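User: Quick sanity check before I run a bigger batch. Here is a single chain. Can you write out its predicted 3D structure?
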Amino acid sequence: MCALGCASGVPGHGSAPTADVDYVVTPSSDLASFGVSACANQSVTYRPWAAPWSRIEVTEGARVDDTLQPSARGCVAYRVDLVAGRNTLIGTEAVSSAHSEWMLRPSGAIGTVRVGFVLPPGFAVASAWPSAVGAWGTTLGGPDTHRSRDAPRVGALGAEAVASGASRLDASFVLPPLALELPSDVLVGHFEHSTRDVGGTQLQVARVAGTLPHTQAQLVEHIAQAVGMVGSVGGRFPSERILAVVWPAPSDQPVQFGLTKRGGGASILLFFGESAPAGSLAADWVTVHELSHLLHPLVPGADRWLSEGIATYYQEVLRARAGWQTPEQAWTRIAQGFRTGRLGGTGRTLREEALAMHETAAYTRVYWGGTAFALAADMELRARGSSLDAGIARCVREVQRTSRPVPAGRILAVFDEALVPLGAEYGDRSEWPPTDDLLERLGVRWSSADDDATVELVDAPESALRDAIMRPRR
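Assistant: Done. Predicted structure follows.
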């Protein structure tokens, strides 16, 4: 059963003949640019994705308006200059770049798409995409990360696509259909790499050079626990593969910031603090927050209050369930967040605030207003013998992920039909919701009138429900 979003929105799912496309990517040794060639077995045109034409040098094929047309042999070739930004990090030893920054996308009915890499000596590549071993006639050493070496020959089409004349690949991947619609991080260069199976999800942790107070083993264990925690909400983690790129940052926070992408196997970029105290990983909420975004489909900009609210709610709930913090600490952070959120915003509805939050910086209003909804929704469902966990599990199980944003109302209908009017009420609110009443019903009170730094948990009409929220699922 698929309750919504079953249409993939990806070319190649019709009766028309489909074109198979092979890309070969050749990073420069200084990681400043990527050379890319692509060949198809049928006529295919290519369009820029994120990189403008000003950063693209065409070496084969002809540019016609906003397209790149293949040469007589059915191939195109170009070189893209990388520019540091939100989707590209350029370090001295490695570059993490979303493939939207260097891939020109094929147009038309597309079948199988493969991406091979010819790497400078000693370089490696890591991606959340599945390996092309067998699909391209290669036998490579590991499933998703490969060090530069004398790899077996590729098939004729792939070899033809290597603009440099190389006939061997160092790594190859098959792109899932969603990777033609949504970006995913690809890491190239020198880095430390580990893999682990977490409840059926293949986790890769790739750590670039830098000084961190944590060992690779500690990082892998920490991220694996976070993946397991998020997977426990829906019964399984919502992606079969995930690449976690660990990038050191000048911060004293365990993790300063994070970004999650969904393009055909999830990727998460985590900025770990170089000067964070040793043993501070349990205080990291960012990793759980970012991974929690994968518990449901993409939402439109005006419904970001729902996605950020769910992620913020579970960053506290799941860490309490796992013992990273006590329930009292989790409720304190939620109560403090509600006080902060009440003071934020521009007086508009929550939907309007979410749509404009990058311009108005109304982040606390959106994040914590959404968290207030998540708590109210969980309370309502638990009072009827269900839970927000159960609703999300239904979404993970029944909803196929696509590149098309799904409105909040449709997602909530999958969670539980009873949440649809509650979501509409919260989204249309311009005033702060009654969070004091919610916390009072749960028995969450500030420890004293003069001290609002912490809360205490007392007996109340719904204190049993409060304790169940933070209790690990069996």
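The longest helix spans residues 363-383.

User: Great, the batch can go ahead then.
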